[in-house]
Design a protein that fits this description.
Number of helices: 3
Number of domains: 2
CATH class of the largest domain: Mainly Alpha
Radius of gyration: 19 Å
Strand order of the largest sheet: 1-2
Structural class: mainly alpha
Oligomer: single chain
Strand content: 5-15%
Distance between the termini: 52 Å
CATH architecture of the largest domain: Up-down Bundle
Largest sheet: 2 strands, antiparallel
Order of helices and strands: HEHHE
Length: 123
């Protein structure tokens, strides 16, 4: 096979494998598909209260969650789903935005839309 044909075949296969890898990433929850794509971690709305409390406790034992204290920008609304999402995202961001850092025993979602609101900025 001529060198040009071999190179073209190599480029085609590399493109195919790269596209296949991206498809697998979507299937398995890795949303960092585009280089530099910002992602956030939030609690699944279907999560029960005990799970959300456990997620807050775990995440805040690993990262600084002062932003959730009364009087701070992310305190309100004062509910479990909001506080869990913020705590889980803080953990996810601090750990390098790897899909495995946004699992929380399958009670979290990785999103590509910034969940910030009002003066509460998700990092």
């Amino acid at each position: 096979m001529p060198k040009a044909a071999t190179f073209s075949l190599f480029v085609f296969l590399l493109s195919f494998i790269s596209g296949f890898s991206t498809s697998l990433s979507v299937l398995f929850g890795t949303l960092n598909l585009v280089h530099g794509q910002k992602t956030w971690c939030v609690a699944k709305p279907s999560s029960d209260s005990a799970t959300l409390v456990a997620n807050i406790n775990y995440a805040c034992s690993q990262v600084d969650c002062r932003i959730l204290q009364k009087g701070c920008p992310c305190y309100s609304p004062d509910n479990l789903i909001n506080h869990a999402s913020i705590a889980m995202n803080l953990y996810y961001q601090c750990r390098g935005r790897n899909h495995w850092n946004c699992d929380f025993k399958n009670s979290a979602l990785t999103v590509v839309t910034d969940p910030s609101y009002g003066s509460c900025a998700y990092e």
